[in-house]
Amino acid sequence: LMIDTPTSPVTSGLPLFFVITVTAIKQGYEDWLRHKADNEVNGAPVFVVRSGSLVQTRSKNIRVGDIVRVAKDETFPADLVLLSSDRADGTCHITTASLDGETNLKTHFSVPETSVCQSVSQLEALQAVVECQQPEADLYRFVGRITVTQHEEEIVRPLGPENLLLRGARLKNTKEIFGVAVYTGMESKMALNYKCKSQKRSAVEKSMNTFLIIYLAILLFEAILSTILKYAWQAEDKWDEPFYNQKTEQEKNSSRILKFISDFLAFLVLYNFIIPISLYVTVEMQKFLGSFFIGWDLDLYHEESDQKAQVNTSDLNEELGQVWNRSEEM
After folding, report:
1. Domain P-type ATPase A spans what residues (predicted)?
2. Which neighbouring-strand residues pair with 57?
3. What pLDDT, in 10s, does the model give residues 17-59?
4. What DSSP letter does each residue of 9-51 carry, written as one string?
């Protein structure tokens, strides 16, 4: 308490700046990868029925009311109401593993009046109006109706979840289907569920943040206590300006409030070693480099599709220990 802090703010600030820079670069790189993946999905080629023929366009150009053709093993680019398929009964099979984790095949149906429209010319001549509820995030709820005009007669059929093909699901065991887009872009159910998700954090990072708050509270307590003790000790004139440390005119005329704040910040710099900055550097670098090793792992490589393990975020590397084979456990 007798002397000013011998620690330079520069030497204390550089490690913090390095941590922030490393974290920003890591998060920026992962955001760029996600942005690149989004562009690939939004720019994926799709076929829509326009002017009596199939026209190739990008998935981001699909608008509500467009009739979209989806082939086997392709992903639905928007939320579609099934109109017809290559099957005579107008059914199709899909898997929603990327949405709800269920790998079993689900059967979806089209209404009888549209299931017979299996060609582009028939779909172009189709006169129908689809009415449905406003977009909502519930994957298993859909209420609507389709009104088909045939021979100047209007036929109304109800629509439910079994008629809706969700964006992100994949067509299986069916050569092709035709569907009309009802929810696109950020109005699709998959996108609405993404909006509700918070940033993912691992258990290790959560515990580290908890300890950081505790250490920060201790640091503030130490700085405030030391500042108060310093002014209590300098209450006597002989200690406020001893012979070996004479004050300058500027120090004598300076505001006591500003001096108190300056001393408080000086003690913060002096005691900042309680914050484990090097720990954060080590953990961030380990996560970032560990994500590359996951992509290089030959045991996670799928030779048939020529795909390696894709790391969307390195913040959850240590959570992989929670994944196990249930068949072995049973």
Report:
1. 46-107
2. 46
3. 877 887 788 788 888 888 888 888 888 899 999 888 889 999 8
4. HHHHHHHHHHHHHHHHHHHHHHHHHHHHHHHHHHT-EEEEEET
How many CB atoms within 10 Å of residue 174? 20
Does residue 189 contact residue 142 with C-beta atoms inside 8 Å?
no
- Rg (C-alpha) for the chain, rounded Å, is 32
Q: Output the pTM of the full model.
A: 0.61
Condensed to tens digits (0 to 9), the pLDDT of residues 225-259 reads 988 888 887 777 665 666 566 666 666 666 778 88
Give the up-direction half-sphere exposure of residue 223: CA atoms within 13 A in the CB hemisphere: 22
Question: Is the Cβ–Cβ distance between 60 and 39 less than 8 Å?
Answer: no
Cα end-to-end distance, the chain, whole Å: 65
Q: For residue range 195-206, what is the model confidence (pLDDT) as tens digits?
A: 544 566 777 778
What token pair was written down for 93? Answer: 């099979």
Phi, psi of 3 (to 5 degrees): -120, 165
The token pair at 164 is: 């809706």
**Farthest CA pair distance, the chain:** 109
Two tokens, residue 76: 């639905």
Distance CA 270, CA 2 (A): 14
Distance of CA 167 to the CA centre of its chain: 17
